[in-house]
Amino acid sequence: xxxxxxxxxxxxxxxxHEPARETLAVDxxxxxxxxxxxxxxVGPSGCGKTSVLSLIAGLFEPSxxxxxxxxxxxxxxxxxxxxxxxxxxxxxxxxxxxxxxLGLEVRRGLTxxxxxxxxxxxxxxxxxEFRRSYPSxxxxxxxxxxxxxxxxxxxxxxxxxxxPFSALDYQTRLILEDEVRAAxxxxxxxxxxxxxxxxxxxxxxxxxAVFSGRPARVRRxxxxxxxxxxxxxxxxxxxxxxxxxxxxxxxx
Amino acid sequence: MSAEHKLYLKxxxxxxxxxxxxxxxxxxVLLGAWEAAVRLDLADPFIVSSPARVVRTVASLYSxxxxxxxxxxxxLETVAGFVSGTAIGVLIAVLLWFCPFAESVLDPYxxxxxxxxxxxxxxxLIVWVGAGAEAIIVMALLVSTVVTVxxxxxxxxxxxxxKLKLMNTLGANRLQxxxxxxxxxxxxxxxxxxxISVGMxxxxxxxxxxxxxxxxLGYLIVYGGQVFKLDLVMASxxxxxxxxxxxxxxxxxxxxxxxxxxxxSE
Lengths: 252, 266
Prior knowledge:
heterodimer, A: 252 residues, 3-stranded antiparallel beta sheet, B: 266 residues, mainly alpha, MetI-like fold, 2 domains
């Protein structure tokens, strides 16, 4: 492990226990994510991609191997890790502003400064005029932006994105991929995106790790050397080549 | 606003007015049929009473200064049973949510308590807390508490797992998860629990009054039945209907206020 490592998974194993059976979800998984790097994880559905994010977030402990996050144990990382879920999970009884401040409230980090910063983030993502609206008044894209602000408000160093665009329509999805990639690159965040969408993985990240079926391990990694925004990357010839490569790897 | 939308709103309004009118007409028809049946000698007023006799009975109760003490007794017992029963019920539900192990242990006991007709406990209550208003309030409390625990706890348990995961990823402790997600998310359930609890408190109080009391509407009903004064029985039931409806609508109004406060207004 070196200084440059933001997330390290070393020979990680994860077993799920149910009364009827035990499932080996992850076995012998090695993955290294450098600081400031954006890595996507793609793999067959049900291969344990989300479990890997949960391990990194410290939501549960690995059955074997070691997980390090920002130089320590996952649980110690606290608010330095931000998590974006598949759906926005906004609380319907809170205004957009109060939803965005939820993390700060929970972490007891709500001060006039952090509030002002969060409000500025809402403005930046076009949610300024909806500050006092309830989530039900917003479109799916706006709601997911509010969820992004809720995550960024805690000023994390590492972002874990668990298929955060899967519930959106295609057009909104492309726009948000663009915005989120820009935000991550601009903010210098380290990010790990779990997705089943190969093109999303290539458009957004610096590296794509292809997982095998259960038990999950890294099958092959692809470096994405394309400049530009997520949207621009999609029209590059290199994009098509990578797509082909990853697709073949997934089907192999 | 387009002419079409105006027409739509107008039709909506007319339907609502029509509904109200039909409800009123139904009431008048029922009362009229009741009164007519007696006047036309189709039914014996001694057995079925009549709207006019009910009004006369209420008036005579009022002039002998008996009306309001009876109403007040029953009303206060119900409010006391409802408030304490709901408070205790919600408190128990909260404690059980915080201790899943206790919840799993106590579950079958709750089920049995819920299934048990609480009326069966009447004699025990009389022996334990005395044959007075206390026994009646405890009866109302018992009836409303158990159903409140069951309903409210079920509401807490229905919190979406993804919302719990969200709080987990934000590093929330169990208390924060409860106050910020589980409790506000259960407001609709709490409200329907209140509505059920109000009804249950009336059941508890009237049953309690049947058993022990010397005052109150339940007492008037039993007494009227025993001395064959069906006018008194009917009059008490009518008053009870009005009281129960008032209390139900008070809770419904409270629900609306809270809904608006939580941004759930439709």
